Amino acid sequence: MPNKRIEMNKIKQVLRSYAAGYGTKTIGGMLCMSRNTVRKYLRISQALPYSIEEQMEMDDSTLNELFLGERKEEVLPERRKELDALLPDYARRLKRKGMTKRKLFEEYHASHPDGYSRSRFNLAMQAYMATSRPIAHLEHKAGDKMYVDYAGDKLSIVDAETGEIIPVEVFVAILPCSQLTYVEAVATQRKEDFIRSCENALWFYGGVPAVIVPDNLKAAVKRPSRYEAELTDDFAAFADHYGCVAIPARVRKPRDKALVEGAVKLIYRSVYPQVEEGAFTSLEALNTAIRTALELHNNAPMDSGRRQSRREQYEDVERPAMRPLPSTRFELRQRKSATVQKNGYVYVEQHYYSVPYKYIGKKVGILYDSHTVDVYYGYDKLATHVRSYHRYGYTTVMGHLASNCRAQAEWSPMGFITEAMKIDKSVGEYVKAVIDSRPHPEQAYKSCQGILAFARRVGEVRLTNACRLAASCGMYSYRAIETIIANKQDMLPPEEAMGEIQASIPRHENIRGKEYFE
Question: pTM of this prediction?
Answer without folding.
Answer: 0.45
